[in-house]
Amino acid sequence: MVRRAHGELESQILYLLRSGKRLTVKDVHRLLGEVDNYNTIMTVMSRLAVKGQLAREKAGLQYEYWLVAPASAQSLIEKVKQKFFGLKTSTLVTHLIESADDLSDDDLEEMERLVREAKEKRGKK
Questions:
Q1: CA–CA distance, 93 with 118 (Å, rounded to integer)
Q2: Are 9 and 44 in contact (CB under 8 A)?
Q3: Alpha helix locations (H) across 1-125?
């Protein structure tokens, strides 16, 4: 069995639920390639529900889970920024760029476009 870094499984579960679909633990287990222990996935999803990031509802013998709100993904990013980068977005972006081995020229051009658009929006305020 492959061991994941702390929080990686949680992030992958949240990513799967980002589509807005309701998923059971069995669905998530299958979508993750059945690499992780079913009970571990169930525990993580249950804890995410207790934290308020997921909602759940009994459907037959199991629960269906879904994201509470699209803001959940944003709050996760804010938590990462606060914990590792002191809430400084530029430090987070710098780390991502410097540590990414898979950035193509197209990716960098897209980032430059997004920065230009952000500057334009600020100029209009």
A1: 14
A2: yes
A3: 8-17, 25-31, 38-51, 71-85, 89-99, 105-124
Predicted pLDDT of residue 4: 54
Domain boundaries, the chain: 8-67, 88-124
Per-residue pLDDT tens over the stretch 69-114:
655 555 667 777 777 777 677 887 888 888 888 888 998 899 899 8
**CATH node for 8-67:** 1.10.10.10
CA distance 58 to 47: 16
pTM of the model: 0.54
How far apart are alpha carbons 51 and 81 in whole angstroms?
Answer: 18
Q: How many residues does the chain have?
A: 125
**DSSP label at residue 66:** E
Q: How far apart are CA 18 and CA 12, in angstroms?
A: 10
